[in-house]
Amino acid sequence: MNKHAYNVAIVGATGAVGQQMLKTLEEREFPIASLKLLSSKRSAGKQIEFKGTTYTVEEAVPESFADVNVALFSAGGSVSKALIPEAVKRGAVCVDNTSAFRMDENVPLVVPEVNEADLHNHTGVIANPNCSTIQMVVALEPIRQELGLKKVVVSTYQAVSGAGLDAVEEMEHQTKAILNGEPVKAEVLPVGGDKKHYQIAFNAVPQIDLFQENGYTFEEMKMINETKKIMHMPELEVAATCVRLPIETGHSESVYFETNKGGTSVTDIQQMLADAPGVTLQDNPSEQLYPMVTTSVGKNDVFVGRVRRDLDRDNGYHAWIVSDNLLKGAAWNSVQIAESLVKLNLLGK
Amino acid sequence: MNKHAYNVAIVGATGAVGQQMLKTLEEREFPIASLKLLSSKRSAGKQIEFKGTTYTVEEAVPESFADVNVALFSAGGSVSKALIPEAVKRGAVCVDNTSAFRMDENVPLVVPEVNEADLHNHTGVIANPNCSTIQMVVALEPIRQELGLKKVVVSTYQAVSGAGLDAVEEMEHQTKAILNGEPVKAEVLPVGGDKKHYQIAFNAVPQIDLFQENGYTFEEMKMINETKKIMHMPELEVAATCVRLPIETGHSESVYFETNKGGTSVTDIQQMLADAPGVTLQDNPSEQLYPMVTTSVGKNDVFVGRVRRDLDRDNGYHAWIVSDNLLKGAAWNSVQIAESLVKLNLLGK
């Protein structure tokens, strides 16, 4: 990292991810010259502490980005679509945590452990992938590098905080209501903007985001398309089933994958994972050691365990991948992108 | 069904499954001449109501089975191993809900919608498959019949009641403790008899039953081996990842499967499911219609939705399968076997 310090803006500072971005910037001692906390009009005026200083949240408007070097966006797709072009025009490099620009061919979609070099191609906007995509590609990349990758089938176990603080509150209210024998209200999940809402407490809901024409949800198509883009593998076979569960924070994934080269031992795969950046291997069945939400939340790494051979195909494997969806899935990956931009001298280019 | 009535015994009458067996026998108006409720010494003496009569639970001993025509066992593998030979010796036909005899080549492993005819080969014992296996084979069988089946990869979302009433209570206690900010105790899950115990509330635990030498859990191997046996397909490729979740009752499954014949439309697959015995198709994305635990519990059917084509392999499909693990997964399938035995005149043979 060079010795400069940067003017940083956080858009969506009062949200679940925005809060984690601030915590992560502080922990990582990101070189901040000035900090702007931005939000919707509704949240403007709130006060937030950062490194002992109190900041007042301001409404995000185009002029907010004058003199900003790097802006981290996590305030929803429509905010990103409206304000990122304005911020870029004013010289800010934007790291966007929404899906607004992810599939734009001029926008790098970056997980630093996988494709940091793509940052060199940025033209002002870098997209942060979907939470469930990030943790999967971090775990699969070291294996892809050694053995190649042919097919991925993932079933997710996703936490409600991925749908925002309203969803977390809804789950808590519903859980209390059920334990007290009271009626349950559902107004947020599975998708705020969809027609119907279902109980999440003590339930499993196989819908995250809206359904697409092909029967997959948008969340599932994000995992499919983003994985191919990040890995630069349009030919990679990817399928996903995304499921929301009564868990506050922390996504888990059951992943079946086929490599190009078969016959590699589980021990060798475990070694690739143990050596990989951003991965913690937790895999010892005889000690009941495997990743869980309860042991992963609050940590930046992606945790991998339950690695085993498919019993039928000698290029088939199974693994269980867990990470904090608000950290590596969002805030930490965004801050990591900002750190890479600094390291590669790509801010203000 | 013929006009006879039978002397019925329930072993494990006070347990989670035993209770559902009684409820199901009553609902189905199974032709009962006499009913014996049996249990461990510890639970003997308890009183249970059935069709308006109060029964006193007796300790299960070999002599309990004199004159019994059909005995439904759900009191753990060691009880089944000890008492089923004694019951068979005394002329009772035993339907066993434990894993004790499932892989015995002389014991039919039966899901009536799939392999009812195997009952003809019984020599006194019929095994009821594992809960997570049953709902999967009911959903896949109609597709197998039309298109053949090559490979199945399943990730499960399993409820705590599959681990018994103690596990349900543990989840409730932990949930209350977390909501009240109190410390969490874990003494039952993931496996009563294993070394370590983990929090299940607001967590996902990728271990059900003990780990085997090959890195799979026994629950996963049950799904693999039992599916092949029930479908009479030793060559079928099956892999499973079994996960326990904070859900009281109702298992969900995300299933990827490859058929022999490719290119069939989703509409045709949906029609096969809609026409199949024991299956309710719930599959309309535009109306957010898909199976969930909250809408499936308390019902005997297997609910299937989210049917879609794999985007890469033209013989690949995905589906979401939900059922009540205490009903079709246990009690209802056992009673259904008893009904089939009556129908086929195989009791007292």
List its salient traits.
homodimer, 349 residues, alpha/beta, Rossmann fold, Dihydrodipicolinate Reductase, domain 2, six-stranded parallel sheet, six-stranded mixed sheet, 9 helices, 30% helix, 21% strand, amino-acid biosynthesis (chains A, B)
Task: Using the coordinates above, name the CATH class of the largest domain in chain A.
Answer: Alpha Beta
- What is the arithmetic mean of pLDDT of chain A? 97
The two chains with the largest interface, and their residue counts, are: A-B, 61 and 60 residues
SSE run of chain A: EHEEEEEHEHEHEHHEEHEHEEH
Helix count of chain A equals 9
Low-confidence stretches of chain A: none
Q: Helical percent range of chain A?
A: 25-40%
Architecture (CATH level 2) name of the largest domain in chain A: 2-Layer Sandwich
Beta-strand content bin of chain A: 15-25%
Structural class of chain A: alpha/beta
Quaternary status of these chains? homodimer
Number of E strands of chain A:
14
The coarse silhouette of chain A is globular
Q: How is the biggest beta sheet of chain A arranged?
A: 6 strands, parallel
CATH superfamily of the largest domain in chain A: Dihydrodipicolinate Reductase, domain 2
The CATH topology annotation of the largest domain in chain A reads as Dihydrodipicolinate Reductase, domain 2
Instruction: Give the distance, in angstroms, between the N- and C-terminal Cα atoms of chain A.
Output: 16 Å
Compute the number of structural domains of chain A.
2
Return Rg of chain A in Å.
Answer: 20 Å
Strand order of the largest sheet of chain A: 5-2-1-6-7-8
